[in-house]
Specification:
Blueprint: H1 2-7, H2 17-42, E1 45-53, E2 59-68, E3 74-83, H3 89-102, E4 110-115, H4 119-122, H5 128-135, E5 140-143, H6 145-156
Parallel strand pairs: 1-4, 4-5
Antiparallel strand pairs: 1-2, 2-3
Helix pairs in contact: 3-5
């Protein structure tokens, strides 16, 4: 990019806000596809999700994966934010499984799932983890440790 800008005439650098946003979007798509290619190469993966309302009270869900590379390096990578109006366990489970399939990941290769300790996600009967375990019994649930740490810090403050 630096070479392009130095070599371009000043009247044709294509750095308007719209072009900058397009560059950001294209680079983001490339990073996203690179992460998914790494996950496919690793084969087995874990899924992490957390939902919270943003400042405008719209429920947002962050979706991440973790996997072990061929070099035995553990990676945890954010993939996307999504909006949702329904935060019931079955609805979130369906949303998550649809995203995994949209990313062209084999859902049968999911070996772990991690969420906060809310009843809609961690519930043994109607939580996300229960709905996913019903379809994918090898996807073991574990409570997200970052949430536990955050809760402890908030309460200690």
């Amino acid at each position: 990019m630096d070479n392009f800008l130095k070599a371009s005439p000043r009247h044709a650098q294509y750095i308007s806000p719209q072009i900058q946003n397009e560059f950001i979007q294209l680079i983001g798509q490339e990073i996203h596809q690179s992460i998914l290619a790494d996950v496919r190469e690793a084969k087995w993966f874990g899924f992490i999700a957390d939902e919270t309302p943003d400042v405008s009270r719209i429920q947002q869900v962050s979706l991440s994966v973790w996997y072990i590379t061929t070099e035995a390096e553990i990676k945890e990578m954010f993939l996307e934010f999504m909006q949702t109006e329904d935060t019931r366990g079955v609805s979130l489970a369906n949303l998550f499984l649809l995203r995994i399939m949209a990313w062209n990941l084999e859902k049968e290769n999911m070996r772990a799932q991690a969420y906060d300790k809310g009843s809609n996600t961690s519930g043994k009967f109607k939580g996300v983890q229960a709905a996913i375990r019903e379809e994918l019994p090898d996807a073991v649930y574990c409570a997200c440790q970052a949430h536990g740490l955050n809760t402890a810090i908030v309460h200690s403050c």
